[in-house]
Amino acid sequence: MIVALVNIILSISLKNAPKSVHNPKAVWVLAAGLCSIILFFTMWVYPFGEKVSYINKIETALEAAEEQQTHEEMTVVFLNSERKCFRTTTSNCHSVPYSNSFFIKNNLDEKKEVRLQIRALDAKENELKTVESDVMVLEAGELKLVETEETSDTSSSWNRSSFQTDVRMHSSEWLYQYREVE
């Protein structure tokens, strides 16, 4: 956009200048090329990266669920606590909250309705917050992101988290309840 605006201004001010000084067609080609590159990255590369990241998250959660799987009915996995912030030299990420991702896996052989209460703890085992999940329906063997009131419905399904805290979560405690699906 800026390149096009500069090209228009220079084309008007240097109306009869030789092509060696100002070549408007070359500038339009350059502007079109830059716009195409930006469009390519915003429409294809960035969404593809989000999907790859989400697949990696699911695979990591499945591996963790398999490792810690005991003879319990449900397996809860605390995956990560991270800030979603692109740090530049002028920006500061201190005001960005930490997004915390939890997954739950149904280890039973039948569909269940599950509700989870999570107590988030910092590095010194101080309670950051306690949240309750929405009632979730899990198929037999299904792994699902724990959704709470704070889970955004407007954000990309590839970029969701369970809830947010102002301080990085280091551990957690949880209780779950389940019942037959009616």
What does this structure look like?
This protein has 182 residues and is α+β, with helices and mostly antiparallel strands. It has one domain (34-87, 94-180). 31% of the residues lie in helices and 30% in strands. The chain has helices at 2-13, 24-68, and strands at residues 74-83, 98-106, 112-121, 127-132, 136-138, 143-145, 163-165, 171-180. Strands 1, 2, 6 and 7 form a four-stranded antiparallel β-sheet that branches. The model has no long low-confidence stretch (mean pLDDT 85).
Tell me the series of helices and strands, N- to C-terminal.
HHEEEEEEEE
Shape: elongated
* Number of helical segments with 4 or more residues: 2
Name the helicity range. Answer: 25-40%
Low-confidence stretches: none
Record field, number of beta strands: 8
User: Roughly what is the average pLDDT, rounded to an integer?
Assistant: 85
Would you tell me the structural class of the helices and strands? alpha+beta
Strand content: 25-35%
As for the number of domains, it is: 1
Task: List the quaternary state of the chains.
Answer: single chain
